[in-house]
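Annex B. Sample input.
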Amino acid sequence: MRASLDTNVIIHMYKADRQGILFDFFNEGVFIYEQIRVVELENHGAEILDKVDKDISDGKIRLYTDDDLRAKGMYRVFMMKVEENRLLYNPGDLGEVYAISLAQTLGAYSIVTDDIKQGGPYMSLLQFEGEEIMPFSFADVLILRYLLGKADAHQTVRDFDEINNSSELDWSFRSHLTRFIKRFIRDPYRNEDVEWLKTLADSNKICVRDKLMVLKGII
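Annex B, continued. Sample output.
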């Protein structure tokens, strides 16, 4: 998978020095729009800019500029998506608008955002039938990484706690695990999310319910 990154998740992962999780999990690449780097991160994540810039320079993050999009013949499509999405979200969600619009323009399957409030991009994308973009929070990524056997249950909890504490998010892992189970198993907003996890589990021979019970048992 590959993913478009929102400002907030970049800040949260880098503050905890857990950005490598994103690069490992989204092994087909992660990318951001230039405004997220030159405006959003300048204003809200100045302390991590050197690390982000190094990862851009090293090719771990693909930075898309307007010139890049023009060269691909995608700039007009991108701007159309930006205008459409700005009608759906609050003015303060501009970083999310760029992240979603870039994912839609490039045909990426995933966006990672920690804006999970009602009316925000994460919840809104879940409620759009037929939406081709899969939203994930950092907690979702950690749980999926665990299900795929790339980290054990204890490491998953430790990583969650480190990210949560370093950014003072005041999130509960138990509540996010419950949210994950509701979304993908018990009471989904979209049936395609259930099918997506089932396909992932079948192709990797994972017993999702058993693994989630183990994770739930240590928190």
